[in-house]
TrEMBL record, chain A:
Name listed for the protein in its UniProt record: Branched-chain amino acid ABC transporter permease
Keyword Transport belongs to the record: no
PANTHER family xref list: HIGH-AFFINITY BRANCHED-CHAIN AMINO ACID TRANSPORT PROTEIN BRAE, HIGH-AFFINITY BRANCHED-CHAIN AMINO ACID TRANSPORT SYSTEM PERMEASE
Organism superkingdom: Bacteria
Pfam families: BPD_transp_2
Gene Ontology CC entries for this record: plasma membrane
Transmembrane segments: 38-59, 66-84, 90-108, 120-139, 159-177, 206-231, 243-268, 280-299
Keyword Transmembrane set for record: yes
Membrane topology value: Multi-pass membrane protein
Subcellular location: Cell membrane
Automatic annotation (TrEMBL), chain B:
Family designation: Belongs to the ABC transporter superfamily.
GO biological process, any: L-amino acid transport
Protein name in UniProt: ATP-binding cassette domain-containing protein
InterPro entries cross-referenced by the UniProt entry: AAA+_ATPase, ABC_branched_ATPase_LivF/BraG, ABC_transporter-like_ATP-bd, ABC_transporter-like_CS, BCAA_Transport_ATP-bd_LivF, P-loop_NTPase
Pfam families: ABC_tran
Cell membrane as UniProt keyword: no
SMART domains in alphabetical order: AAA
Start and end residues of each ABC transporter domain: 1-222
Keywords carried by this UniProt record: Amino-acid transport, ATP-binding, Nucleotide-binding, Transport
Lineage: Bacteria, Bacillati, Bacillota, Bacilli, Lactobacillales
GO MF terms held by the record: ATP binding; ATP hydrolysis activity; branched-chain amino acid transmembrane transporter activity
UniProtKB/TrEMBL annotation, chain C:
Name of this chain's protein: Branched-chain amino acid ABC transporter permease
UniProt lineage: Bacteria, Bacillati, Bacillota, Bacilli, Lactobacillales
Any one GO MF annotation of this record: L-phenylalanine transmembrane transporter activity
Species of provenance: Fundicoccus ignavus
The keyword Cell membrane appears for this protein: yes
Topology versus the membrane: Multi-pass membrane protein
Superkingdom assignment: Bacteria
GO biological process: D-alanine transmembrane transport; L-alanine transport; L-isoleucine import across plasma membrane
From TrEMBL, chain E:
MF GO annotations: ATP binding; ATP hydrolysis activity; L-isoleucine transmembrane transporter activity; L-phenylalanine transmembrane transporter activity; L-valine transmembrane transporter activity
PANTHER family noted in UniProt: AMINO ACID ABC TRANSPORTER ATP-BINDING PROTEIN, CONSERVED COMPONENT OF ABC TRANSPORTER FOR NATURAL AMINO ACIDS-RELATED
GO cellular component, one term: plasma membrane
Protein name according to UniProt: ATP-binding cassette domain-containing protein
Stretches assigned to the ABC transporter domain: 4-256
GO biological process annotation, one example: L-alanine transport
Pfam families per record: ABC_tran (PF00005), BCA_ABC_TP_C (PF12399)
Keyword ATP-binding: yes
Source organism of this protein record: Fundicoccus ignavus
Entry keyword set: ATP-binding, Nucleotide-binding, Transport
Amino acid sequence: MNRFHIRNMVWLAAAVLGFLALYALVQAGIINRFYQITLVTIMINIIYAVGLNLVLGVAGQFSLGHAGFIAIGAYSAAIFTKAMESNTTGLYVGMAVGVGLSIILALFVGIPTLRLKGDYLAIATLGVAEIVRVIINNMRDLTNGPAGISGIPLVSNWINVYVFMVITTIFILNFVYSSAGRATMAIQQDEIAAESMGVNVTMYKVLAFVLGAITASIGGSLQATFLGIVTPGDYTFERSIDVLIIVVFGGIGSFTGSFVAAILLGLLNVFLQDYGQLRMVIYAIALVLIMIFRPGGLLGTRELRLGSLVTKALGKDKEAVS
Amino acid sequence: MINAVKSVNFEVNTGEIVALIGANGAGKSTILRTISGLVKPSQGSITYGDHDLLKLVPKKIVETGISHVPEGRHVFKGLTVKENLELGAFLRNDKEGILEDAKAVYQRFPILEERKNQDAATLSGGEQQMLAMGRALMSKPKLLLLDEPSMGLAPIFIKEIFNIIVDIQKQGTTVLLIEQNAKMALTIANRGYVLETGEIVLSGTGAELLESDDVQKAYLGG
Amino acid sequence: MQLFMQQLVNGISLGSIYALIALGYTMVYGTIRLINFAHGDIYMVGAFFGYFLVSVLNVNVFLAMLLAGVFCAILGVVIEKVAYKPLRKSTRVAALITAIGVSYFLQNVMIYFLGPEVRAFPSTIPVMPFRVFGIVINMKQVFVFVTTVILMIVLNAIVKHTKMGKAMRAVAVDSEAAELMGIDVNRVISFTFALGSALAGVAGVLVGVYYNSISATMGTTPGLKAFVAAVVGGVGSIPGAMIGGYLIGLLETIVTFMGGSMYKDAAVYALLIVILLIKPSGLFGKNVKEKV
Amino acid sequence: QDTIKIGGNLELSGAAAAYGTPIAEALQLAVEQRNEAGGLLDGQQLELFITDNQSDLTEAASVATKLISQDVVGIIGPTATGVAKAAIPIISEEKMPTILGASTGDGLTLDENGNVLEYLFRVCFEDSFQGLAAGQYATETLEASSAIIITDQALDYSLGLADSFTERFEANGGSIIKTESYTSGDTDFSAILTSLLGQDFDILYIPGYYTETGLIIKQARELGITQPIIGGDGYHSKTLIELAGAENASDIYFTTHFYEGNDDPKTQQFIDDFSAKFGKQPDTFAALGYDAANLLLDAIEIAGSTDTEAITQAIGEIENFEGITGTFSFDDNHNPIKPALMLKLENGEIASAEEVSAE
Amino acid sequence: MSLLEVKNLTKNFGGLAAVSNVSIHLEENELVGLIGPNGAGKTTFFNLLTGVYVPTEGTIELLTDNGMTKLNNVKPDKINELGLARTFQNIRLFKDQTVIENVMVAMHREQGNSVFSSILRLAAHYRTNAEMRAKALELLKIFNLDGIADEKARNLSYGQQRRLEIVRALATQPKILFLDEPAAGMNPAETAELTDLIAQIREQFDLTIVLIEHDMSLVMQICQRIYVLEYGRLIAQGTAEEVKQNPDVIRAYLGGVD
Ligand SMILES: Nc1ncnc2c1ncn2[C@@H]1O[C@H](COP(=O)(O)OP(=O)(O)OP(=O)(O)O)[C@@H](O)[C@H]1O
Ligand SMILES: Nc1ncnc2c1ncn2[C@@H]1O[C@H](COP(=O)(O)OP(=O)(O)OP(=O)(O)O)[C@@H](O)[C@H]1O
Ligand SMILES: [Mg+2]
Ligand SMILES: [Mg+2]
C-alpha cells in the first residue's frame, strides 16, 4: 500500500475479474464467434468513446474528426503488420507509428483550430478527417487506394482489445481526476475565467485533443488487425458520428455512460440485424426517442466511482492517504 | 424538486407601486417569472383584471399589458441597442408612437443614444441594465414587473431609475418591484411585502415597513 | 482563357446548387442554433415528391416545385414539433444527435419504400444552350442561378426587414427574453422550419430537374457541402450562405480545371479551415463578442 | 420436416445498397421458384436468411458469423469487393461455401500467397478481365489510339478497370492522354468535361457505376463531346439510359455479363419473372445474383446432402452451368470461365452485342 | 517604486475610447477604489490589467523579482501567475464543478508537474490532492463557504457565488486582487458583512486590493484612495473625503444632493 493506493487495487481487481468472467464465457462457448465480434466491436467503441468523451465531455471541444485519427491508426497497423516478419511486433510497431502520426496531426491541427468555438470546431475537425481520408485514398502506392489493404494478419482478438480498453480507460480517467483534468473541465465551463485563474487554456485543450487522438488511433490499430481489412470508405465522417452518438447517448462527460451506451448500442445492433432493411429505420426511431426521453444521456454526468465506493465501504477514505 | 415558492398570497392594486423585498434566494424572482408565464406554478392562481394568467402563454400575457424586466438583464446580444428597443415594442404597430417612446428612453438614458448602434453584448453592465429597463418601457405596459432594476447602476442612475418608476406610476402604470436597495424601494412604494424562503413574513405600507425593526435589521443593515 | 471562363460558368452553376441548399440550412441554424442534419434529407424528400408529381401526375415542373415547397414546409414543421421541440432546453449536441436520427429516418424510410436505386427525373426544362462570347450557357443554368439569387434576396428581406425576421433574431439570442417581448417563440420556430424546409423542397425539385437524377441518399453529400458553405459564409448569414456556396462551387471547378480533380473535396475542406482560421465565424458571420 | 437454410450477406443499406439490393431480390426469386418447384433434396423446402451488412466491414464479418450460427448451408454475398473481403476470413475458417454475385475485384478468390480460397466462388469475371477486354476492343475494333480515362476515385472497381484498360491499351500502341476523377455521389461533372474540350482524343474510358456515368454521358454529350464512351458492367442498367437521356446514349460501349435481348428463353423467362415480382426490370446485379443463387441450389442438389463440404465440392465441379450470364464452369481460381459481352448503345437502345475476350 | 504602474493606458473599440489615457499606480497592501458612472470604462480597465484585452496604447508594469515587468501583451494565465487575480462583474464560476473544485482549479499551479504521478496514481498524487483540499477548505472557511464545499457552484445563491469568486481568486495566491462590483445584488446587511471580509483578507494575505463598486457605503468606508473614471478618462482621485466633495464627481457620478 506504499506506492499505490487502495483505489488502484480495487480497479485492478475489477479489471481482472471482468477478464476472468469473459474468459470463462468464451471458453464455455457462450460467447461464440459471433458474440466475440460483437464484444470486440463494443470494446473498440468504448476506446473511441472514452477518448472522445475526454475531448467533448471534459474539455468541451466539439470534435467530429475522430474518424481521421482512427484511420491513421488502422492504416499504420495494417501496413506494419503485413510488412513485418513477426505480425504481433508489426501490430505494436504500427500502433506506435499511428500514435506518433496522430499526435503530430493533432498538434498541427489542434493548436490553430482549438480556438474555434462549438460547431465551427466541429466542422473544421470534420474537414481535417475528410482530408486525411482523401489523402489515404490517393496514396495508392502505400495504401492501395479505395480498395484498401486486406489480408492483414488477424493479430488482435478480444484479449488484447480488452487489455487496451482497460489501459486507455484507466489512463484517461486518471487524467480526468487529476489537477490537470480539473483545469481542463474548468476551461469547458468558462474559458475566460479559467484563463484568469492561471490555467493555460491552449495547452490543456490541445492536451485533451491529443489524448483523444491517441486513443482513437490505438482503437483503429486494433480494429484493423481484428477485421483484417481497412478501406478508406470505413472512415467517413459517419464513423465519427457513430462515436459521438455513443458519447451523447451515455451522457456527455460520464465515462460510465460511455461504457453503458457502447454496450447497449452494440446489443441493439445485434438485435436489429434480423430486421433487414427496416433495421436502419428502427435504429433511427430509437435514436430520436432516446434523445427525446433522455436528452442528457442515459447517465447524465453521473459516474460509477468504484474506488470511492469501496473505500467508503471500508471506512478508510481519510487515512488511506499514507 | 425544489419548491422555490411555497404559498404566497399578495395583491397589487391598479396604479400602485408594490415592493417585494427579501434575502438572496427567497423566491422573489420566481414570483415574477410566474406572473409573466415563464414558469408555471404547481398550484394557486394569478388573476390580472379579468384574466387568469395561469391559462395564458407568455405572449398573451404580454398582450394584456404586462412587461417584465428580468433578473440578469437579458438584453438581445448581437442586436444593436436600437433593435433591442424596437423589440420591446414588438406587439405595437403605431410607428410614430414607437419612435416617440424611443426618444423618451434616449432622453432618460443619454448613454444609450450614444451607444445606439452598438452591439448590446458589448455594453457595460449598467448600460445593459438601462437598456433592459428602456426596452420594457417601449411596450407601454400597464403593469411593469421590475427585478432589481438598480443592480450595478451608479448612484446617479439609481436615482434616475427610481424617478422613472415614480413617473410611470403617475402616468397610470402599476409597478411590482423587487429591490435589494430596500430603503429606496420602500420609500417610493405604496405597499411592500417581505419574503423569506418562499413565504411572506411581513407586509404593510412602504413607510410602515421602513420603520419596522425586523426590516431595519435584516435589510437595511441598521 | 475561354475555357477558364467556361469553367467559371460551371463553377457558378454548381455553386448555385450548394447555395440553394445552404440558404435553408443557415436559416434554421440562425434561429435555433441547430445543425439540422436532416436538411439534406428534406431536400431529398422534396425531390422525390416533385418526381412523383411530374412523372406520375404529369404536373408542370414549376407547379411541382411550388407544391414540393409546401409539402416540405409541412414536413419540416412536423419534424420540428415531434423531434426537436422536446429538446429545446437540452444540450445542443443532444439536439444534433436527434437531427442525425431524423436524417437516418428519412433516408431509410425512403429506401425501405422506394429502394436505394437512382431514378431519372424526367427532363422537362429545355436545355437550349446559347453562346455569350464563346461561352456556352444553357437555360437550366440561368434558371438555377436566377432562382437562387431571387430566393436569397427574398429571404434576406424577410430576415432583415420584417417583424418575423426580427423575432427570429431575438429568439436566436435569447428565447426567454423574446417571450417577454410578446414573441410567440413556437410560432417563430415553426415559421423558420417551414421556410427553411420549403427552400429545401424547392431546391430538391430544382436539382432533380437540373441533373435529372434523384436517389434516397442524394441529400448526404450536398447536405454536407451546403453545411460547409453555410459555415464558410458565416452561419446565420443569408448572403454568407450564398457566397459560401458559390465559393465552394468555384473552388471545386477550378481545382478540377487545374488537374487536381482527385483533391477537390480536400480543397473544399482546406478552404473551410483556412477561412475559419482567419475569420473564426465565417466570412459574413458576426463575431459574437462576449463581454467580460 | 427440416428446411434447408440459405444465407444472404448483402448490402441492403449504406453505400452499396443499390447493388446489394437487386442481388437480394434475385435471391428471393430463385429460392421462391425452387420452393414452388418442390424444393430440394426430396422436397425439402428452402429457407432464406438475408441479413443486411450495411455496406460496412465489421457488419459483414458479424453477419457472416451470424448466418453460420443459424446453420445455413451456403451464403450468397457480400456484393462490394471490400465488404466481401471482410467476410472472407470467417467463411474460410468456418468452411462455409460462399458465392459472390458481383464482387469483381482482382484476386478476390485467392489468399495472400496466391492460393485459391477453397470455399469462395464468384459468378462474375474480374475487373482486369473487363479492363483488358475493353482495351482490346478499343484498339482493335474501334481503332482508337488515344484515350482519356475518367475514374471514380472512391471506387476500387473503377480504378481496377482503369488500370487494366491502360495496360492493354498502351500495350496495343495507344496512349492515355489524361486521367480525371470524380467521387461517387457527385452529380456535376461539367468541370471535368469542360477541361476535355480542347483535347484531341479518340475515345473516353469511364469505368464506374451507372449512377454517375449516366450523368457523365449526358453532360458530355450536351457539351458536344461526341467521341465513343466505353465502360464496364456498372453501366448495365436501364437507369443509365434514363439518366443520360436516350438522345445522348449513342456510341456507348460497355463490357458486361449478359444481354437481356438475347433469344435464350431462360433469360426472357427470368426478365419476365423478375419484373412480375418486383415491378421493375432486372439489372446485371440481379442477373448475377440469380445465377449465384441457382448455382448454389444446383450444387446442393448435386451434392445430395446439406453437408457444406459436399456442397463446396459440388460447386467447384459444376460443368457448364447454364446461367443468365452465360454458360460457364469454374477455373482453378474459382472464377467463372465465360466470355464478356460488349454491348453498344445507340439512341438508348442496345444496338449490338458481341462476345469479347481479353486475349 | 510602485507595485503596479499604469501609464497612459488607452483602449479603443472602433471609434469608441473605452479607456483613454489613464495613468494610475498601486502600492503594496493598499485598498483602492475605482468608481465612475456606468460605461465609464472601469471593467474595461480591469480587463486590460488582467490581460483579457490588449491595450491600444500605454503601458502596464508590475514589480516582480526581475524589477518592473511589462504586462502589455502577456496572456491572462501568465499575468495571473505573476500575481494578479480578479473577480468578474457577471459572475463566471465553473458552474458544474463543486465549490471546492472551483477553488482547487485556481490552485492547480501549485501541484506542479505531477500529471505523470496523477495518471499513474502514485501515492504522491493522493497526498498532494489531500493537501490541496485541506488548503482550499481553509480558504472557504474564511468566507463561510466550507459547509457547502461539495455543492455544485450553480446551486449557490447569488451572494454565495460572489463570495466564491473571491475565494477562487485568492486561491491563486495573488499580490493584487481586482474585485468587480463584489456587492452587486446584495442587500445592505450582506454588503456590510462583505466590507469587513474584504478588509480582513487584505490584512491576512497582505494583499493590494482594487475594487469597482457602486455601493458608496462600501467604497467610502474601506478605500484608502479612490480613482474616478468618466468616459474612459480619469477625472478625479484622492481619499474618500476628497472625492466625495469633488464637483465633477458629484455631477457625473453621485448626482446632485436631493
Ligand atoms: N429552475 C430552478 N430549479 C431549481 N431551483 C430553482 C430554480 N429557480 C429558482 N430556484 C431556487 O429557488 C429559490 C428562489 O429563487 P429566486 O431566484 O426566486 O430567488 P430571489 O429571491 O430572486 O433571490 P435573489 O435575490 O438572489 O435574486 C432559490 O433557492 C433558487 O436556487
Ligand atoms: N468589446 C467592446 N466593444 C465595444 N464597446 C465596448 C466593448 N466593451 C466595452 N465597451 C464599451 O466601453 C464602455 C466601457 O465599458 P465598461 O464595461 O468598462 O464600463 P464600466 O465602467 O464597467 O460600467 P458599469 O459600471 O456599467 O459596469 C461602455 O460604454 C461599453 O459600451
Ligand atoms: Mg432574484
Ligand atoms: Mg463594469
